[in-house]
TrEMBL record:
Its EC number is 2.3.1.-. Belongs to the transferase hexapeptide repeat family. Pfam families: Hexapep. It is an enzyme of class 2 (transferase). The gene is vatD. The lineage of its organism: Bacteria, Pseudomonadati, Planctomycetota, Planctomycetia, Pirellulales. This is Streptogramin A acetyltransferase. GO terms for molecular function: acyltransferase activity. Gene3D superfamilies: Hexapeptide repeat proteins.
Amino acid sequence: MVLPDGTVIKTVVHLNQVIDHPRISIGDFTYFGHLEELEDYAGYLAQFLFPLSGERLVIGKFCQIAHGVRFITSSANHSMRGFSTYPFANFMMNEATTADDMKALFDVADRKGDTVVGNDVWIGTEAVVMPGVTVGDGAIIGARAVVARDVPPYTVIAGNPAKPVKKRFDDQVTGALRDLRWWDWPIETIQANIDAISGADIDTLKRVGDRIDAAPKRDSKLS
């Protein structure tokens, strides 16, 4: 983030510009505002997600992620099939350990799957998102919430465990926003309609969406 005088705020970063991880996908303009610079943003946000992990972390466009947020992915889980949950194999590796043995370390029963965050989601300070959770578009997660269940689109949740506090808009507006998907519009269109997006002017956004739908589609073979 750059201030009018040219000062660069190095602790606010667009995540897809600072993360290159085979199991993480992040949409454009999603940012992380931390209180200190980090050397490894992927390692901080999803410290248990490894190249050999079976799950992914997928975050959409225009998300706002506050200081201290963490994503606990499925590879953090311990097997609960036996009497002990202790990961003995993790501490018994040696020169005879094979690649297949390494992959087996990530074969955890009851794997929760991918963690998916939609578009235009605001995640508050020090919130924790647990394995396999899907957060819908436009949701807001309160500070220090522990999110263990899926979050519906355009819903505010808070607490530990996190629970719904309220819907941001009525069902009609929420449905229209999910259909419009303004975050997928060309950036020039978004910039021209920031007031309507920020000001909750759904009628204007619908008109823009109608114009986009009516515009001739370019033939990808000719472009």
